[in-house]
Amino acid sequence: MNNKIRTPALVLAALLWGGSAAFTKYALDTWQPMTLLTVELAGASVVLWTAVLIRGHRRPAVWRRLVLLGALEPGLCYAFVNLGLTHTSASNGIVLSGLESGFVVVLAAVFLRERLAVRSVAGLAVALAGVLVLEGARPEFTGVFGGDLLVLSGIFCAAVYVLVARRTADQVDALTMTAYQFASGFLFFLPFSVGEWVTGAEKAPLHQSAWSWLVATGIGVGAYACSFLLYNFAIARVSAGRAAMILNLMPVFGVLIAVIFLREHPGAWQLVGAAMIIGSIFVFPEDEEEPETPGEVAAPPLPVDGAR
């Protein structure tokens, strides 16, 4: 398919990811956090693997790398972030999450040899400033201690995921890639939830209503599986840095959906932050897409197959 549809695919992925926050807030009225995420991952895995098996499945040569992707995100990333948020403030977690695009740009420059142009740096700076403004960062940010370190570890895992996905997406189709990712992510995350159920920290999902199950699986399939499917499709030809810039739209979409469905009212600072994030995409250079032929990419593959 033409590269021109890959950027809109990333924007749609950002829309789905951004909207997941509002719908998750609704779902948390009847679910506890870790249990909800486990059900979401399970529902997404079932739907993705059903599609893979109907189409016909052959194990890809890079299946170990796909398992690594799932372990990074949603596995390690979601586990670290959820655990960290039990030991730090939500505002600290939000501020730290805005560092993902910075991690991606720097790591891509080091490991993928992506050119760190002046406009790339400027776009990154505007985007990060917009995230801080949008989320209402306060000067009393407490620094990186305890739970903050766990959240930061999760964000770093998400950034590494972007790099590994960037070097994998041109070797396997998006559906297979996403199915393996979610299955391994679910299996990685399940022990955390079982531990919560055994210790009584959360209740096992035994008495939820049919509507609660529908909402949870709907978020897992619509907001998570579809967004990762779109992302895995697009990242094969879009630079990791540019992808990170576009995904900074997530909090913008999150605010808009919260306004529409949850009747929340954004303040002036939120509108300014949203405008800065959108503007950063236009600051970022337009020529950041990779060539059509995978062999033309100069960066060496990451040492992940068989090494982990």
Describe the structure.
- The chain has twelve helices and no strands.
- With 308 residues, the chain is an all-alpha fold.
- It has one domain (3-199, 213-287).
- Helix 1 (6-27) packs antiparallel against helix 9, helix 4 (90-97) runs parallel beside helix 7 and helix 5 (100-111) runs antiparallel to helix 10.
- It comes from Actinoallomurus bryophytorum.
- InterPro entries: AA-Vitamin_Transporters, EamA_dom, EmrE-like.
- Keywords: Membrane, Transmembrane, Transmembrane helix.
- Pfam families: EamA.
Keywords for this structure?
single chain; 308 residues; mainly alpha
Question: What does this entry show, briefly?
Answer:
This protein has about 300 residues and is an all-alpha fold.
What's the SSE blueprint?
Layout: H1 6-27, H2 33-55, H3 63-84, H4 90-97, H5 100-111, H6 118-134, H7 147-166, H8 174-199, H9 210-234, H10 240-247, H11 250-261, H12 268-283
Counting DSSP E segments of at least 2 residues, the number of strands comes to 0
Radius of gyration: 19 Å
Contiguous uncertain segments of 5+ residues:
137-144, 287-308
Shape assignment: globular
Share of helical residues: 55-70%
Question: So what's the oligomer here?
Answer: single chain
Strand fraction: under 5%
